[in-house]
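Incident review: delayed structure delivery

Summary: a single-chain prediction request sat in the queue longer than the usual turnaround. Root cause was a stuck worker, restarted by the on-call engineer. No data loss occurred. The affected request and its eventual output are reproduced below so the record is complete for anyone auditing the incident later.

Affected input:
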Amino acid sequence: MEITWLGHAAFRLKGGGKTLYIDPVEMAYCGVRTKHVFEGLEPADIILLTHDHTDHCNPGSLQPLRTPSTITVGPESCREKLGTLVHVLNPGDSTSVGTVAIRAVYAYNIKRERAPGSPFHPRGSGVGYLLTIDGRTVYHAGDTEPVPEMDGLGPVDVALLPVDGHYTMSPEEAMQCAATVKATTVVPMHFFETPLERVLAAATAYPGINVQALDIGEIWDMQ
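Output delivered after worker restart:
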């Protein structure tokens, strides 16, 4: 299986005879490299969306990747933007496309809020995904903090974890979550202004977890 980071929370996974994208939205803060990468992307067999925020679910970004046979999956919150194009998976729901198994899991804020009582990501509005492809398990956490529902999700081979610390987890919390889901490898994402050095420093507290930091457009072949 191949994993390519496309910047921010966007990834391309290739395996099981499928090309799968997660939150494929081009973000300007990631620089010109992201623009070049998105211009060269091939069509999708599967598109997974974690929630309806524009940096994760943008109809304009999805359109070049879609074909008549593309299957688009997301939580109910994405229906307002994409209508019946979305096959709805809410937390706890599962589906499969060929040999690719997809399970939606909880992703939400507990303490990070726009205003008192108004979390950036309310419980139930978004999801993360557990994917099984070519015998490997990949966890894309979506926009979340450490939440109780992470217990029992693992073990996973790879955890794709946000580390910005404002809308989602800090690097230190991300490594705690990696330990919770028994991840062998962490690929950090959703950085905004978080320096990679802080992520690597946080990982030193968990010597059993490898950090695979990808450059935008870099292909990691999991052999």
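Verification: The radius of gyration is 16 Å.
Action items: add queue-age alerting; document worker restart procedure.
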